[in-house]
Amino acid sequence: MNNNSNYQVLLYYKFVAIPDAEQFAAEHLAYCKELNVRGRILIADEGINGTVSGTIEQTEQYMRDLRSNPLFADIVFKIDEADQHAFPKIFVRYKKELVTLRYDKPLDPNTLSGTHLSPKEFHDYLQREDVIVLDGRSDYEYDLGHFRNAIRPDLKTFKEFPEWLRANMADMKDKPIITYCTGGIRCEKLTGVMLSEGFKDVYQLDGGIVTYGKDEEVQGKLFDGKCYVFDERISVTINRTDEAVVVGKCYHCEAPAETYINCADDTCHRQHIVCPDCEESHHGFCSLECEEHVTSV
Length: 297
Hints:
- The protein is of the alpha/beta class and 297 residues long.
- It has nine helices and 14 strands.
- The protein has three domains: 7-94, 2-Layer Sandwich (Alpha-Beta Plaits), CATH 3.30.70; 115-226, Rhodanese-like domain (Oxidized Rhodanese, domain 1, 3-Layer(aba) Sandwich); 249-295, no CATH class.
- Strands 4-1-3-2-5 form a five-stranded mixed beta sheet. It has a four-stranded parallel beta sheet with strand order 6-10-9-7. It has a three-stranded antiparallel beta sheet with strand order 8-11-12.
- The model has no long low-confidence stretch (mean pLDDT 95).
- Its EC number is 1.14.-.-.
- Residues 127-221 form the Rhodanese domain.
């Protein structure tokens, strides 16, 4: 670890039945405030999904405390070093689903989910000509970075996936399909949907893109661009080889770029990729209308 990095960012999930999950969420929020960690944690009857930042001491304590609960004794944490908090505050909420899908059938990843592939296995599958690679994220995440030759789903939200699969991949049900997402949780549900829809040969990247990027053997190979993350870092580097390329395009001029910013007009806040020149010349706005709206106030 970089000695200058005094903070850590944790990413984790676990599908496990939580008794009185709503009460657990309230208690967990109070605990996080006392420990002074920040982040976004979702708790449902079906489990927990979170990302938390804090000092090394705070995050190590958080991991110990969560694992001391028998429900989460074997939970896996993905750990990134950081120079500061990745979140402005702590957010813990009870939800009906950890990943909003609203599928018309019950899904339990512990009983129905695609075969897990290690980073090395996934890397090997990526190089097979008979394998279809499906990005399990939204379109704006794909646009910043993705695995080479992956299908880009034209989706804004995860709950659109079932209908999108029916409309776009119905003729691929007998082909081997590998899926991936940021940390793995979306693919737990996505591959369950695919199996329920009749897909026969479905796989998922264990631990997601984040784990793939940390694997010492594959070193993020065949991932182009950067990985979008849902915190103040916005993106992280995955490909640690000299093969790394930029795939993002500036919203204004389409030059290669990989910096996501929010429109400087708070009533818009459109997140868009910009190159350094356009960020300066457009003053952080996504359009002339937004700039005029702010300057006219």
